[in-house]
């Protein structure tokens, strides 16, 4: 067993567990977006960023892929973490304002304005659909093409792939193309309608 | 060429070459580096070749096209050995004179010699030229002496003796120990101790006993070409270094990852590898030592991010070149999930030097924590553009003024950018900083792979930050949110600043964003990407303030913030600016003061350039 501290609490974890797995096992909340229990970690959205202190050095790292190490101290809600997390949510919302998941995250973590140039794209390039298609559906029908801002999810050569069985798993797991929440939505606007209920940790618009 | 099968026959081979070369009374070496190629050195070489044949001098004069000499500003370069006469800017028409006077007459052709800019005196030898005087060329030394496509040239100069010594006299641990004591640190940028890397790779357990050594030749920093010139001019030094490293680590297979924008490098490298294989210096049972080693070359697809270790390995494997998290080091699980050691071109080329010169001698060069030399490509607003190799610890001032000759056209120096897109801009006040890994990091920049871009008063620091940000935005692989989205938003903010559309609060947002990108990005590209912005804000905040508050660009670069006007007092009405204006924004009659229509003006500055009466003013 590996012994470490998460938010001041001493915990034990199995060798090979990630910080995220360990935190969730002990009921510590760390937000995620591109992570799914059934899929391999991808570490792209950086939302699960935590502060790790070891050997007197502090640094931020994505908890979904960081394996637990003996004696490290993990802070999941330090000032540094909160500051970075808010900017990351803000950045994601600037490109995909219509995502219900992102709007809820904004309310949950206190993002009340978008200071960046807003766009209206329909993909956050989190890669969940690609991993779902490959790892769970064994199809591998979709993948990334292009680089940087030109990156997109596509079938090979942008043609319908024979490997695609139209199972819909990619749609099921997508955090962007779900039903938008009832609030705004012009690019750059925020819903924030659950902002006041954050303390109750409830999502009223989810339960409609 | 036939295979050399033992150490004694290797010695014999070298001695035979040595005595065979004694027949030449003189050697003409024409620089064939990238810079000189651009100056059409091939024509000079052809002229020498036909002239030498024409005069029947083939048996006494050796002619070769070599690697880069470094002084690219003055190309094409020709050096006549053994007198070491250095000719600059040679054209094919000069060739008969050089042969007549230097090869046959033993005298120098005066007008082709380098002229000392300080006193106008002619300088005969390469080593006496101020550009070379303060340099210490141990890596680049052979570049000017050997034909990279002839392995014999390398062997005559003592090539592959370090490999022979390593294989027959040293144990693998002893080699790692020597590299450790020599203090060699990775030349790719971060300066990680090479021996530590080697040791962990040696100790890592491979599931099937296979380990790899890799050479990173994916040099992508704007303005940097040291690795290219080294691999192009002296490919064997890298091959030899890799073979020694592989022996020390316990690997038998190497890969060199070269970017596809370097066709000449690739050609020279492949030729060198073929020749090494033919002689048995690569392949099975090298010199009957029982050690097998061979190298494959992998050509990149032009992505800057593939210089990052995990992206590079993904690319070699044929996958998308994007980084992965490195919680398990590549020394344990790298290429094809096997223990892998990756070093940069220059790092590998240092290895034979350590073996040949000895640990103490090598460690005495440079500073205590950064030993050896470093090659920089000195470019930008500098008199002597070229590659310079200096001992670590040389100050920036010495490099820029003593070697580089300072800023041309009487302009004043503003900043020097080191470390490529991940580095930072260093102002005049810190020019006495010695270049070593730690000191450059302290001043907010980094060593990087060795790019050094000099900027003068005409450079706008906000515009420079914008340039590097554009580059990085283009080159970000797009995997993680902070790098892809964060850099894009930083780019928007910087663009707004240069166009005069930003409010002063935007600067705080820019800093906040830079911090987030630095702290939360997945790989080194993202983590260092805000450096150009942060270092320009740190040292040139007043320029940012001017852009934001006064909407002014003091260097006159940001077009939206400048305007051109004509002083009616000074204008003679000569019509030159009117005729030159590409958009017809200048109006006025002959001998009457002209005016510029601001609504039409494209702010190209041509009117300013053509005006002989200093009547055009940039505001």
- Look at the structure and give the CATH class of the domain at 2-77 in chain A: Alpha Beta
The quaternary organization reads as: heterodimer
Q: In percent, how much strand structure appears in the residues of chain A?
A: 5-15%
Helical proportion of chain A? 10-25%
Q: Average pLDDT of chain A, to the nearest integer?
A: 88
CA distance, first residue to last residue of chain B? 69 Å
For the largest beta-sheet of chain A, the strand count, sense and barrel status come to: 5 strands, mixed
Shape of chain B: globular
- How many helix segments of chain A? 5
Note the run of SSEs of chain A as H and E: EEHEEEHHHEEH
- The CATH architecture of the domain at 2-77 in chain A comes to Roll
Number of helices of chain B: 25
| Strands of chain B, count | 19
Commentary on this structure:
The complex is a heterodimer of chains A (208) and B (619). By secondary structure, chain A is of the alpha+beta class. Among the domains of chain A are: 2-77, Ubiquitin-like (UB roll) (Roll), CATH 3.10.20; 128-173, 2-Layer Sandwich (Alpha-Beta Plaits). Chain A has helices at 19-25, 79-95, 100-108, 128-136, 169-173, and strands spanning 2-6, 9-13, 49-54, 57-62, 73-75, 143-145, 152-154. In chain A, the strands form two sheets. A five-stranded mixed beta sheet of chain A has the order 2-1-5-3-4, with helices on both faces. In chain A, a hairpin with a 2-residue loop joins strand 1 and strand 2 (9-13). In chain A, helix 2 (79-95) runs antiparallel to helix 3 (100-108). Chain A is globular and about 50 Å long. Mean pLDDT of chain A is 88; it is low at 199-208. Chain B has five domains: 21-126, Glutaredoxin (3-Layer(aba) Sandwich); 151-363, 3-Layer(aba) Sandwich (Rossmann fold), CATH 3.40.50; 373-456, Ubiquitin-like (UB roll) (Roll), CATH 3.10.20; 461-550, Up-down Bundle (de novo design (two linked rop proteins)); 563-618, Alpha-Beta Plaits (2-Layer Sandwich). Chain B is α/β, with parallel strands linked by helices and 619 residues long. In chain B, helix 7 (161-169) packs across helix 14 (345-357). In chain B, 53% of the residues are buried. The model of chain B has no long low-confidence stretch (mean pLDDT 92). The radius of gyration of chain B is 27 Å and the shape is globular.
